[in-house]
Write a structure and sequence with these properties.
Layout: H1 20-45, H2 50-59, H3 65-76, H4 82-97, H5 100-110, H6 113-123, H7 148-167, H8 171-194, H9 200-229
Helix pairs in contact: 1-9, 3-8, 4-5, 5-7, 5-9, 7-8, 7-9, 8-9
Amino acid sequence: MSCRTSNVDKTKAAPQPISPSTIAFGITALVSLLGFLGVLLFVRSNPRSRGDLAATLQLQRNSHPALARSMGWISWFGFRPQSLWLPFTLVVTNWFRGPRLGSVFLVFAWASSLLSFFTKLVVKRPRPDDPLIRVATANIRDTSFPSGHTLHYVTFWGFVAYLAATNLRNRTLGRAIAAAITAIIGLIGPSRIYLGHHWLTDVLASYLLGLAYFSGQIAVYRWLRSLLDGEPEPEYYDEQERPSPPAPLPILGEG
């Protein structure tokens, strides 16, 4: 009596092991978090430090109108309503045009603003109000520590830069976008101090907390990508350029 059998290759690519770079992101997250806690303890015991005042006065020595406008423009992205509709637009666009896992992590990056909100409720540090400091007019309703702008830029816009650098099919364009965003992230801290809205330790704490959040998110993102399909993040494609799915494997001979 003969038997029929079908040999179908059911082999699935095994998840890649955690790479050294992913581990490095995780270590960076831990070290940055410890740094943030150190700054937090310092601020709790020194809410008005002379070093903060000296840093602000040093930055504000140059009062050229062009510099003031530039500092204001850098901070503009972190004020409402643009701090809401810009991230929303990018999340939705990435959902339909790019890797959807990236969109999910963009939402998590956007949610980092909750860390700033709850920390401000606990610390309740007053905004800069020294008579020697120039304070730019702005609609500010919360307390000073940490800097919400800086945290948002590092976590959300930092992840946008990461996606652009690693996923855009045009690598040159992706790296250029990432470089521009990185420059703005580097300038947002000085901008907040120059405008008189935050102390140096406010933005330093946000850089450290943001780096911890960002690095931890990148580590989880890379690990999850490897766990899901063992392949690097797919590139962005136009609909006309999107490659067709591979043909199914043939059923091998009978016997």
